């Protein structure tokens, strides 16, 4: 076996170990997320894998969840916008949290915030995949189990992300909660600024188009 193959095997093993470490973070969030960044147990490749898996599961839910729990009108669904409903808040959260915590002695870097957030999303695919199968065997009367477990997957992921931010920034519990709320507020501010920006761009383009039409009309 040549040196290149050995390096590839080492990289693959590191990737698999870092991906498996997500389950440790899921069950031991405080120790797990500390080791994730401070002990470099996590990798961007594993974080990207978890994010992609989350997106895939989100789309699969539309196809494989029983119609008793989800009614899908495919002609009205834009898959890109549907996926953007995950990616856009993720981007806002990462930049909002990193920007605020950097100003107040947060230890986490931008990449670490992204990585820890993706690792914190692991409960969603882990719980939702068996739920898709469960939805096709339970009755309407038993559907409350599906609803509760589906909500747990989101709440669990949210709790892990909050724990992750506290560990990578080395914040106390109260300070972490404060900056979590502040980060959510920062997301709203960024959305507001983006809406204003695109509104100005749209108005500017409309003005230029109308100006060009007027010039062509006069010519």
Largest sheet, if any?
Answer: none
Shape verdict: globular
User: Would you count the extended β strands for me?
Assistant: 0
How many helices? 8
Percent in helix = over 70%
Name the average pLDDT. 87
Q: What class, by secondary structure content?
A: mainly alpha
> How far apart are the first and last residues' alpha carbons, in Å?
75 Å
- Helix and strand pattern: HHHHHHHH
Structure description:
- By secondary structure, the chain is mostly helical.
- It is built from 8 helices and no strands.
- Helix 3 runs parallel beside helix 6, helix 5 runs antiparallel to helix 7 and helix 7 crosses helix 8.
SSE map:
Blueprint: H1 3-27, H2 29-38, H3 44-64, H4 79-103, H5 110-120, H6 123-135, H7 143-169, H8 173-218
Helix pairs in contact: 1-2, 1-3, 2-7, 3-5, 3-6, 4-5, 4-8, 5-7, 6-7, 7-8
Question: How would you summarize this macromolecular structure in one to three sentences?
Answer:
The chain has helices spanning 3-27, 29-38, 44-64, 79-103, 110-120, 123-135, 143-169, 173-218.
Name its key features.
8 helices; 0% strand; 219 residues; single chain; mainly alpha
């Amino acid at each position: 076996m040549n040196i290149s193959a050995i390096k590839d095997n080492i990289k693959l093993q590191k990737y698999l170990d870092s991906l498996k470490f997500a389950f440790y973070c899921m069950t031991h969030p405080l120790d797990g997320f500390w080791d994730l960044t401070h002990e470099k147990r996590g990798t961007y490749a594993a974080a990207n894998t978890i994010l992609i898996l989350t997106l895939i599961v989100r789309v699969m839910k539309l196809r494989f969840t029983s119609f008793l729990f989800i009614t899908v009108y495919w002609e009205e669904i834009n898959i890109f916008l549907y996926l953007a409903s995950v990616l856009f808040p993720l981007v806002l959260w990462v930049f909002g949290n990193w920007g605020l915590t950097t100003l107040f002695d947060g230890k986490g870097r931008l990449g670490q915030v992204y990585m820890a957030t993706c690792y914190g999303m692991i409960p969603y695919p882990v719980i939702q995949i068996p739920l898709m199968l469960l939805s096709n065997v339970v009755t309407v009367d038993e559907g409350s189990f599906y609803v509760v477990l589906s909500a747990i997957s989101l709440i669990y992921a949210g709790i892990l992300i909050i724990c992750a931010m506290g560990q990578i920034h080395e914040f106390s519990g109260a300070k972490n909660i404060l900056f979590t709320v502040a980060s959510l507020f920062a997301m709203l501010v960024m959305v507001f600024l983006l809406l204003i920006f695109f509104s100005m761009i749209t108005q500017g383009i409309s003005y230029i188009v109308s100006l060009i039409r007027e010039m062509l009309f006069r010519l």
